[in-house]
Amino acid sequence: MYNYVVFDVETPNRANNRMSAIGISLIENGKITKEFYSLINPETSFDYFNTVLTGIDEDMVAFSPNFEEIWKEIEPLMNSGILVAHNAPFDMGVLKRCLSSYEIKWKNYVHYLCTVQVGRRFLPNMPHKLNDMCDYYGIELEHHHAGSDAHACAEILLNYEKDGAELNKFIRTYKFE
To answer: Max alpha carbon distance in the chain (Å)?
Structure first.
């Protein structure tokens, strides 16, 4: 059994190279053991679309830590298991671009799982948007709130595992170089 670091990010604009929020749910021994959420000052402009989608605007993050400051707090969590996200290529890409923007050296690569990819193979005859999966499993969701999205994704992963999905078959490698 693996430990999983389930995370979700919100972004301030279409560049998707900065975060305005991050949520993390840590799964250890088949249970959610720790959760983390923070707004992040992206030190860049917000697009109207992203503000409407997430409810986060420049005023809300004005006194929040920037990514470099929050990274010091979350790096130990991010190192504690296989990374997981719903539509992981998006969240992994934002993480990679944030690390690069702040010239933070982390790992050359990480192992990760995407709950969308698992779902498409494990439950092929249904939609796999986060809200659809939450409806299917009866999981409460405040969509586009990073903390709620990360928690929901963790619950989905635990349901996949409980229902017999062989998650180790879906572990991939993401390069940060």
So the answer is: 45
Q: Each residue's pLDDT tens digit in the chain (177 positions)? A: 689 999 999 999 999 999 999 999 999 999 999 999 999 999 999 999 999 999 999 999 999 999 999 999 999 999 999 999 999 999 999 999 999 999 999 999 999 999 999 999 999 999 999 999 999 999 999 999 999 999 999 999 999 999 999 999 999 999 998
Which residue stretches of the chain are H helix? 48-54, 58-61, 67-78, 88-101, 115-122, 130-137, 146-162
For 41-92, what is the HEC assignment?
A: ECCCCCCHHHHHHHCCCHHHHCCCCEHHHHHHHHHHHHCCCEEEECCHHHHH
pTM for the model stands at 0.97
Instruction: Return d(Cα 83, Cα 115) in angstroms, integer.
Output: 11
User: By the 8 A CB rule, do 106 and 177 touch?
Assistant: no
